[in-house]
Design a protein that fits this description.
- By secondary structure, the protein is α/β, with parallel strands linked by helices.
- It contains 15 helices and 9 strands.
- The chain starts with a helix and ends in a 13-residue tail after the last helix.
Length: about 375
């Protein structure tokens, strides 16, 4: 029996060693690294960007970063809010955290805030009217009591499999995985998306978009393509019929705001604008009135609790330019700063301790790359 066990051990030993090496390499590259550890790495080296290909870690990562930073101002939303930099709050950027995640909707915001370990003083949150329209909003009637917010063992196994596949296919080399520098900026990165494409979250929670951040010509190309495609789609689709408001979603919004009001937290709501070419076409087609009506409902709920909701259609009065979107609806960093400037101007009592308006004006006057307002990519 002992001889059999010895033979089995000898037979499986190379596989075990290979598996351990593969697991260690996947962990080191960031693809299987626990979110809390990634946050710790970024705390010690703020220039590191983090983005795994798998999506199971994103809420866990944003929660871990929140617990680490203990911010006074929390930014919530999806990709429409991900390019807001904490440095826009020029006097105390460390007091701010951007918890926005691509693809999140209202249900995700509810889940995320339910797991916070302490209350911020101010929440700046995206509330798209589309979330509260019956045929577009997520069904919020039965949210899970304890949703999964982290990756499991099976996810780690899949990550190890991808590591092996990338090495086998030559998409990543052993040296690249060990070095862990992204292919766009040459920065220390964690996770395959960060390494391969230079995309990911910075330590402050904001997002860097790889080639589209680094290359002005590529920005222009992608924006024009997106606009032309969307305008063609709108022309072909014609008039969109009116849809009713989602009353269940609006009731959840009421409860959400009531809870924060009771805890003494100020909530500032915002809806980001479409590119003005899209906005103007929507007005021509008559498709915007439905959003207007829903926004009025949202604003009325905010006002019950003394909160403000900013339904922003057009930022051109605040100096917004065509190239300050990078597609039909996502603002660049400079566009995001103009969005925040609007809030700073409307709420000086809330933000004067955190932001110097002269410094904000200087940032907007001196940037050369709309996706790099802080000029971190300057040679």
């Amino acid at each position: 029996m002992l001889r059999l066990l010895t033979k089995l051990f000898v037979f499986f030993l190379p596989l075990l060693v290979l598996s351990l090496l593969l697991a260690g390499l996947t962990w080191h590259a960031g693809e299987a690294m626990p979110a809390a550890r990634a946050v710790e790495v970024q705390h010690n080296a703020p220039g590191v960007i983090y983005r795994q290909e798998r999506t199971c870690d994103r809420m866990e990562y944003k929660l871990a970063a929140y617990r680490s930073r203990q911010p006074e101002i929390l930014i919530l939303g999806n990709s429409l809010m991900m390019f807001i930099r904490t440095a826009f709050f020029t006097e105390d950027p460390g007091a701010v955290y951007n918890a926005a995640v691509s693809g999140w909707g209202f249900a995700d915001l509810l889940t995320y805030t339910a797991h916070l370990d302490h209350d911020p003083k101010i929440i700046i949150a995206l509330f798209r009217p589309q979330w509260f329209i019956a045929d577009a909003a997520t069904d919020l009637s039965e949210l899970p009591a304890s949703p999964s917010i982290s990756c499991g063992f099976e996810d780690d196994l899949h990550a190890m499999t991808r590591t092996a596949q990338y090495l086998r296919d030559g998409k990543l080399t052993l040296g690249q995985l060990i070095d862990g520098r992204d292919f766009v900026f040459g920065r220390r990165s964690l996770g395959f998306s960060a390494i391969k494409y230079g995309v990911g979250h910075r330590a402050d929670g904001s997002f860097i978009l790889g080639r589209q951040t680094a290359n002005l010509e590529y920005q222009e190309q992608k924006r024009i393509e997106a606009l032309n495609n969307r305008l063609t789609e709108m022309q072909n689709a014609g008039y969109a019929p009116k849809a009713a408001s989602n009353e269940a979603a609006l009731d959840k919004l009421d409860a959400f705001l009531a809870g924060w009001h009771q805890r003494g937290v100020v909530v500032v709501g915002v809806s980001t604008p479409f590119h003005f070419k899209i906005y103007e076409r929507m007005l021509e087609l008559g498709t915007y009135s439905n959003l207007d009506e829903t926004a009025r409902r949202i604003s009325a709920i905010f006002s019950v609790y003394g909160f403000s909701y900013h339904y922003i259609n057009d930022l051109r009065s605040n100096g917004m330019k065509d190239n300050e979107w990078f597609d039909t609806g996502h603002l660049t960093e400079s566009g995001s700063l103009r969005l925040m400037l609007t809030l700073f101007q409307q709420h000086p009592d809330l933000f004067e301790r955190y932001t110097d308006m002269n410094k904000v004006d200087s940032l907007l006057a001196n940037y050369t790359n709309p996706m790099d307002v802080l000029r971190e990519l300057d040679p």
